[in-house]
Specification:
The chain has 594 residues and is of the alpha+beta class. It is built from 19 helices and 17 strands. The strands form 4 sheets. A 5-stranded antiparallel beta sheet has the order 2-1-5-4-3, sandwiched between helices. It is a multi-pass membrane protein.
């Protein structure tokens, strides 16, 4: 279906579609490739930038935590805290001065940095000493719930960083006497979460996403704010243990990219989780301009294609219009080509050919007119001769029937038959002129068939289907009698049983249609062709030549009087019956011919 439509469409449309399709494919390929290259470059550059940012976070994190560790270590080394913690004197005075020294030490350490929230020292006996910046905050309770003293002691002076339940950051470190390397206790410093989260906040201002900081035990150390569901999914599934630093995963139907950077000695792991949609959100402008470019390009290309295809096919349209006009009336208008390309040369050749065809047509037309006039005169002679004499077969049968019925049935029917016969002869011979109304022609046929019904009795049945509005139409005289006679003699007479003749008249597409249908023996297709085209297939044999001549006469009269569109059409099937249809123009009394 589509293939046939494409094959049969106009050449201009084919050019237009071809140009548009080529340009569309080209623009789409370039735009799509540019889009995906741009998106890929954005993802790649964003990934590299993300890796750089969290690398900077790792450096800053290492520096800030090392500053705290150095402060705690230098303060411890420059003090006498090691001796005080190792003191074994149990007098009240010694204990008082010992506790006072420890509290003074913690207070001094507390105010070294504003980010310190609490300082706690735990001696050998596990007794805690602490100071807090805000007494309303119970940092010590949070610390003791989270602190594992044995783990801190086993690290042999290496700091342990962890996050409290309420977000406070803690650094715990075991203390050893420097001369003896003997364990004397531990110190814990609590920091405000902003000390570390400020690093992450600055990064979030540059790139959206979750930034997580894990300590050496892979425990979440920062941020202290509420984590997103994606971050929880990442931590719960331990995706930070992947061997590659860059990985992708899917959560809730969305794609994410994770970047994991480890600092020196794996002290910290810095993780950034970025939604791919956030990376490509700036590509919406690329998409917008890509689509806009495609649409504008297609519009310009379409207008150019219309102009180009119109110029290419201009000569073809002129040639087609001239050929169409020439095929209708053979009146050729000389084509003036708009160019001297192949189509222009073809138009010039068509001008020459059309002139020759026009001359030839005029010659043939004149000859045809002369031939038609001669045939019409001959047909008129045959018609007059046919009108002047009734079918001898019919007359002989009628007279014989009259004679037989006079003997058998009596004078009434004989009188009726003689009356009808006389009326029929008077109508056929008495009316002058070649045209009469359809009502008069039907009346003649009704009288004609009434005689046949008396002859054949119940063997013949006639059915009329007539349109009263058509009864005033003018038809050629004596146009139905040959058709009805042919139905009786060639159809019904040779068939056993009852014969039915249908006579129908109707209008169709502005023409008058008259049909005579019988259920007789029918005819072969070859016989139908011979009957309508005797000059092509040869003349019929002498059997029933009278009715054959009548049908041929009806066909020729109609075509000569009204044109090739009009005349007889015969549909017949052997053993079933025959329908003879005659098509005539609808002519009222004013347009009839006399």
């Amino acid at each position: 279906m589509i293939k046939n439509y494409l094959v049969n469409m106009k050449l201009r449309t084919k050019f237009l579609i071809s140009f548009t399709a080529i340009i569309l494919v080209t623009v789409l390929m370039i735009s799509v490739v540019n889009y995906f290259v741009s998106v890929g470059a954005i993802k790649r550059n964003s990934g590299e930038f993300s890796e750089y940012l969290i690398g900077q976070i790792g450096i800053n994190l290492d520096k800030r935590t090392k500053d705290i560790e150095e402060i705690a270590f230098q303060q411890f080394r420059s003090s006498s805290l090691s001796e005080r913690l190792s003191q074994t004197d149990t007098t009240e005075e010694a204990i008082y001065f010992r506790n006072k020294y420890i509290n003074d030490y913690m207070s001094e350490l507390m105010f070294i940095k504003e980010d310190f929230l609490t300082v706690m020292i735990i001696d050998l006996d596990g007794k805690p000493y602490s100071v807090q910046r805000k007494t309303i905050q119970n940092y010590n309770k949070e610390l003791m719930q989270r602190l594992d003293a044995r783990e801190v002691q086993q690290k042999r002076g290496k700091p342990l960083w962890f996050q409290g339940e309420n977000g406070t950051l803690f650094m715990a470190r075991a203390m050893f006497d420097i001369p003896t390397a003997k364990y004397v206790g531990m110190i814990v410093i609590g920091l405000d979460s902003s000390y570390i989260s400020s690093i992450v906040t600055n990064v979030n201002q540059l790139m959206d996403g979750d930034v997580l900081i894990l300590n050496e035990n892979n425990e979440l150390f920062a941020p202290t704010v509420r984590r997103s569901e994606v971050a929880r999914y990442f931590l719960n599934n331990k995706l930070y243990l992947a061997s590659e630093s860059k990985n992708s995963f899917t959560y809730d139907g969305s794609h994410y990219i994770s970047t994991v950077i480890s600092t020196l000695y794996d002290k910290w792991k810095v993780v950034q989780i970025i939604d791919v949609r956030q990376l490509t959100r700036d590509t919406e402008s690329i998409t917008y301009w890509t689509i806009s470019t495609i649409l504008v390009s297609l519009l310009i290309a379409f207008l150019m294609a219309v102009f180009i295809s119109k110029n290419i096919t201009a000569n073809i349209r002129l040639l087609l219009q001239s050929m169409s006009s020439f095929s209708l009336d053979f009146n050729h208008h000389v084509i003036v080509p708009k160019s001297r390309d192949e189509v222009g040369l073809l138009a010039a050749k068509f001008n020459s050919m059309a002139e020759k065809i026009n001359d030839l047509f005029n010659s043939v037309y004149r000859e045809k007119l002369l031939k038609q006039k001669a045939e019409y005169r001959t047909l008129q002679f045959e018609y007059k001769a046919l009108q002047a004499q009734m079918n001898p077969h019919f007359l002989y049968n009628t007279l014989e029937s009259v004679y037989s019925m006079a003997k058998i049935k009596g004078e009434d029917e004989i009188g009726e038959m003689i009356y009808l016969l006389g009326k029929l002869l008077r109508e056929s011979i008495g009316k002058k002129g070649d045209v009469l109304t359809l009502q008069e022609e039907i009346s003649f046929i009704q009288n004609y068939l009434s005689i046949h019904k008396m002859i054949y009795g119940e063997k013949i049945e006639v059915v009329y289907q007539l349109d009263d509005h058509l009864m005033g139409c003018r038809v050629p005289k004596f146009i139905l009698q040959p058709l009805v006679e042919n139905a009786i003699i060639h159809g019904i007479e040779a068939k056993p049983g009852k014969g039915v003749i249908h006579i129908v008249c109707r209008s169709e597409e502005g023409d008058l249609i008259i049909e005579v249908t019988d259920n007789g023996i029918g005819m072969e297709a070859e016989l139908v062709q011979r009957l309508l085209n005797p000059e092509r297939y040869g003349s019929m044999d002498d059997t029933n030549k009278h009715t054959n001549v009548g049908i041929i006469s009806v066909h020729k009269r109609a075509t000569i009087l009204y044109g090739e569109k009009y005349g007889l059409t015969i549909r017949s099937k052997s053993g079933v019956g025959t329908t003879v249809q005659i098509r005539l123009p609808l002519l009222d009394g004013e347009h009839g011919q006399g």
